Amino acid sequence: MELVSDQAVERVVRTMYENFGEQLTMDDMARTALFSKFHFSRVFRQVTGISPGRFLSAVRLQEAKRLLISTSLTVAEISNRVGYTSVGTFSTRFKNSVGVAPTLYRQNGGYRPLIPIDPRRDGWGSRSVTLGGRVSPLPGGDAGPVFLGLFPDAIPQGAPVRCSVLEEPGAYELANVPQGTWYLLAYSVSQDDDVVVPDPTVTDPAPWVGSRGPITVGADTDVLSVDVELRPMRVIDPPLLMALFDPRMARVDATGS
Asked: What class does CATH assign to 115-256?
């Protein structure tokens, strides 16, 4: 049943990537999956970790990122092409999700020199803990520098709660993690890979990703050990919306508060 569910969700996600500018309804997506609307919504969340509507919104912003760095279309034209009727709404959602405004994202070539953390989370709870473990690639995997980020939900967007950049897969540590429920994402590309916005609908080149969650940090938590295994990104993985460091620079000081 799991394989059938994955295949159904993949059909829907590919439809999202092929028709990101159209108004896809829940009924449309359920028909593509060959499920009832209720069953489809439940299965989609089980497979991807988020709702179909949120996934479609993430796909639209992902495609906007691609258009910003690969075309000369204006921000207004891109906003309209990815399904927004208001350029102001598009720009606000883009900045909240990617971390920078569309024009600045384009100027920086899709990268950012510093990845800030979200200071609003620091006051949560009365104590913080250290989260650590190892990031390991699949045998024979060609992984380069690794970004690790801790997020409040399964979509890697906005400013992470805590983050780190490793020169290569290996041991990691995220200190002062506040209480709450978090999702850990690992993302790696080869240093000679010049693809800024990966296309999950094609298999080559594919970035390496890994995720764990939900991870609960409670008042009685001391230290948490969480290992992450990298694997090629799949089309059913939620898009990584936040702008990241340039992997060719291999900067280990690319995070900040």
From this structure: mainly beta
